[in-house]
Design goal:
Blueprint: E1 23-24, H1 27-33, H2 35-42, H3 51-63, E2 67-71, E3 74-78, E4 81-84, E5 89-92, E6 95-100, E7 120-128, H4 137-153, E8 159-164, E9 169-174, H5 177-196, H6 214-217, H7 228-243
Parallel strand pairs: 1-5, 7-8
Antiparallel strand pairs: 2-3, 3-6, 4-5, 6-7, 8-9
Helix pairs in contact: 1-2, 1-4, 1-5, 4-5
């Protein structure tokens, strides 16, 4: 898609990850939503569908049609493979738009596209099934894509967009310093959690009711102070009282 673009180095203090160490960009959103959910999915390989995940899968299937097309002077690339060796992330974008830059733009503002003249600025667009969420789980996922694009193309990615299917509106997300730093910290935390291999204890929240892993996680019975051994002991004590 692009060619002859410089590749910037990793952010200060970071090393480079090997290809087999890369973790899914989507895991950033899972981790913000719930560290236990991230661990069950990315360490245990657990998964379960519900209405929300099924609708999301259907939406992404419609969006992920590989190839590029031009629309109103903007190049739209679908299902673009992304990666960052600095952050240890890998994934596939929904859409990356390439916007033409004016002739006076500096080389670090855009990248060169094959068979196209001038410089182009990449803008990631992530499609979501529902309305904007109160937390920033989708923001960090989009920022992960932006950081991957910057590393791959050498071009600045100052903004991205979340397209919410129900209101059919685009929400602009600015890639400011705070969001970039949070995304880098979350990526580092994912790698630390994979290295430790531990599964966080369950803790019930209101948002658990909409989680597809609710029945596998069992937050009301597997939380802190609710181990299987204690549950069994309480059951035996109850039986003993009944016998007496």
């Amino acid at each position: 898609m692009w060619s002859d673009a410089p590749t910037p180095g990793p952010f200060p203090g970071a090393g480079l990850h090997a290809e087999d160490e890369l973790l899914p960009i989507s895991g950033l959103a899972h981790l913000v939503f719930c560290p236990r959910r991230w661990s069950l999915i990315h360490l245990e390989g657990a998964w379960a569908e519900n209405r929300h995940t099924a609708e999301g899968k259907e939406l992404h299937a419609a969006v992920h049609q590989e190839g590029a097309q031009a629309r109103d002077g903007v190049i739209l690339a679908r299902s673009l493979r992304l990666r960052s060796l600095a952050l240890g992330l890998v994934g596939v974008s929904d859409v990356v738009e390439f916007h033409p830059l004016p002739p006076e733009a500096s080389p670090d503002e855009g990248c060169v596209l094959a068979d196209r003249t001038g410089l182009w600025r990449p803008v990631p667009v992530e499609h979501k099934r529902g309305r904007p969420q109160p937390d920033d789980c989708y923001h960090v996922q989009l920022a992960g894509q932006a950081l991957c694009l910057e590393e791959m193309t050498g071009a600045a990615v100052p903004v991205g967009y979340l397209f919410h299917a129900k209101p059919r509106r685009r929400q602009q997300v600015r890639m400011d310093t705070a969001l970039r730093q949070r995304t880098r910290q979350l990526a580092a935390r994912m790698h630390a959690m994979r290295a430790s291999g531990g599964i966080p204890l369950a803790k019930y929240h209101q948002k658990c009711r909409g989680c597809s892993l609710l029945n596998l996680c069992q937050p009301k019975t597997a939380g802190r102070g609710k181990s299987a051994s204690r549950h069994l002991a309480a059951g035996l004590a109850s039986l003993t009282k009944q016998e007496v």
